[in-house]
Amino acid sequence: MREVSQPATEAIRLVEVLRALADPVRLDLVRRLDQMGEDFCNAIGAEIDVHQTTLSHHYRVLREAGVTWTTVQGRSRLVRLRRNDLDTLFPGLLDSVLNAQR
Question: Which of 35-74 are b and which e, b meaning 16 or more Cβ less than 10 Å from the residue's Cβ?
Answer without folding.
Answer: eeeebebeebbeeeeeeeeebeebbbbbbebbbbbbeeee
